[in-house]
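Summary for the funding panel

The consortium committed to producing paired sequence-structure records for every protein in the target list. Below we show the first two records in order, beginning with the earlier of the two.
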Amino acid sequence: MIAVSRLRRTFGDRVAVDDVSFELVPGEVFGLLGPNGGGKTTTLRMVAGLIRPSSGEVRIDGVPVTSETSARLRARIGFLTEAPGLWDQFSVRQTLLVYARLHGLDAPERAVDASLELFGLGDRAAEHTVKLSKGLKQRVALARALLHNPSVLLLDEPTAGLDPESARGVRDLILRLRHDRRAVVVSTHNLDEVDRIADRVAVIKSRLLALDTPAALRRRLFGQRLRIVLAEPAEPVLAKLLAVTNANGALTAAERVLVADLARLPMSVPDLVRRLVEAGAAIEAIVPEDRPLEDAYLELVGVRPGSDGGQTGVRPRREA
């Protein structure tokens, strides 16, 4: 449905996006991650046909996005920008009606009524957008982006600044779009959010640093690990185990937890459990260690929490 091939975009001497490629299929939620100024918004604008790439190509349903085709292809695309850009003195209904007519919908009034119901905005239809809360403005902007029933949806920071209830409503909507077989690209700094909803993620810092499922990215960077929770301090148990095995480097201990690096472990997991029991360990639980996506992201972009590069979610300026 979306094919991005070797996109590059420069602004004067500055390279905003360099050699970025990815593909999406219907029913896929795709997370676009990267630091401020990393090229996420520029990439979305090129996919939407709003700006031309310096080189490379975007295809929507097999059709190249060019100056000749972009207007026609935009009918298949819904784009939520980070700033909703609503007209203050228009009511919610008037706002949606203008866009329904701009999209040339056959029954604009009916489409607006359906959209107001879908987004729970019926009781706000006559209210001027300037009076709405940020969460409600975001709902109106989402309704506007989906008004023409696009097959592709591009969302730039869809939950930025929203309260938890509003943010959850946006996430639920994105998951419904997946079930409707739409292709959804979500650009966000909220890594916990994208970890929950995205089928795959791309990390870009002008260039594409990684592209995979969140789980596969974690495995690639940190390997597969098990956390073995004990009923007693783990250090003495580890010392006993290392005295009778060559598992040094594959096992670490902290408080009541042993962490096993399965790639370096010189035995099977059942054998490890047997040896722990023989060493007198009382095992309470064995669970996979699931490192947060944030750890993988920071590893890829070369930023550490507390460093001068800042932490994920802190956005001192708008990116290009």
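The next record, for a separate protein in the list, is shown here:
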Amino acid sequence: MNKSLLIIGKPHSSKTVFIAQFYSRLIKRKSKLSLYKPVDDLSAITAAREALANGDEPEPTFPDRSVNLMLPIQVGGQKIDLICPDYGGEQINTIINSREVNNKWLDAIKESDNWIFFIRLNNISEQLDISKITVTAEHTKGSSEVIEIPYSISDQSALIELLQIFLHSKEHDYHFKNSKIKLAVVLTCWDELETEERPKLVLQKNLPLLLNFIESNWKAENLKIIGLSAQGFPLDSEENKEKYQNEGSENFGYLVKEDGQKTNDITELISEVL
């Protein structure tokens, strides 16, 4: 049984790290899930797994790269061929800026009813607040001079627009709440946030309009909001690098479920959306 899982995320949102860690846990039998046969092609995550084994941060996926990783997993008594596209996050920026999806992305969207939306909150820029702009003498030289304030769409608006583009490509009827697509909003690099709050509250505080849009367009039973730290901590010190080298990358990382419960089995994320 093929089940396509579409992981959506901008650059540096931890997509490849998660998939690499997910596979490593499967082969080390550190998961309730398992592989029911060997994986045919691991080229999508080979470099990331090697980097993590050496205690290094994996390099971002090349912008023009697009490879499907097929993981033959077993969930209880059910065998599922899980198709996980690995792609350069810059492709997401291109979709947002052009408001178009190419044929490959269109096929991926239409063929998948399970979406995981990766958001790294520390990479989200604050919305422009004109009340915080200081007007100086340079702005007011000459009575006819116009004060120019640089404008760009906020990251929050861009994420909402991205979901709108995907829903449009899926031919979603906005008269009804979504009952076909399962969506998991995953707040990645959770360790950076240094919080004990539940993921939904964290999303509400940081991206309230995005949460409102999602809850307005998805049925509650098809929506989950989860925290994820695929690495557990940054690999920016010799001490942390040595932990990975000595103990293995598969022993690190954790998931924060909707109720705030923390589990070290990050593969449960897949169970949450299947």
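Regarding this second record: The first strand starts at residue 2 and ends at 9. The beta strands are 2-9, 34-35, 66-75, 78-87, 114-119, 182-187, 223-229, 254-256, 262-263.
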